[in-house]
């Protein structure tokens, strides 16, 4: 369950970052409210995950999901560049997140 909560917290990070962009520097009420609620919800999910997943892994996975998702959101909806090098870097982040998950699972198997 902590992994599911962590992934949801990462997805919420994408939502609150999109809301931050739409808030126009906190001058628009609803995007600002979504941002604040999203930060609280995402942090609560990370706090829950840290109880079972090592801090470094939790943070890297959460940030990785947020960074990749926010980058993809920017490319799809904000006309940010989507060059091959940028996509390659996003792929490397994904590989790192998957690798951390695999290493965490392997360490659990060793401890058993």
TrEMBL record:
Protein name (record): Multidrug resistance protein Mmr
Transmembrane annotation, as ranges: 33-50, 59-78, 84-103
Species in which this protein is naturally found: Gordonia namibiensis NBRC 108229
Localization (cell): Cell membrane
A Pfam match: Multi_Drug_Res
GO molecular function, one term: transmembrane transporter activity
Family under the similarity heading: Belongs to the drug/metabolite transporter (DMT) superfamily. Small multidrug resistance (SMR) (TC 2.A.7.1) family. Mmr subfamily.
GO-annotated biological processes: response to antibiotic
Keywords: Antibiotic resistance, Cell membrane, Membrane, Transmembrane, Transmembrane helix, Transport
Its membrane topology: Multi-pass membrane protein
GO cellular component: plasma membrane
């Amino acid at each position: 369950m902590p992994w599911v909560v962590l992934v949801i917290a990462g997805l919420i990070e994408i939502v609150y970052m999109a809301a931050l962009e739409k808030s126009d520097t906190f001058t628009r009420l609803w995007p600002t409210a979504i941002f604040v609620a999203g930060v609280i919800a995402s942090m609560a999910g990370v706090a829950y995950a840290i109880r079972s997943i090592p801090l470094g892994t939790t943070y890297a996975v959460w940030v990785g999901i947020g960074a990749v998702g926010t980058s993809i959101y920017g490319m799809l909806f904000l006309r940010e560049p989507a060059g091959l090098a940028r996509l390659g870097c996003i792929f490397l982040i994904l590989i790192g997140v998957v690798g951390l998950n695999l290493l965490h699972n392997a360490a659990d198997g060793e401890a058993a």
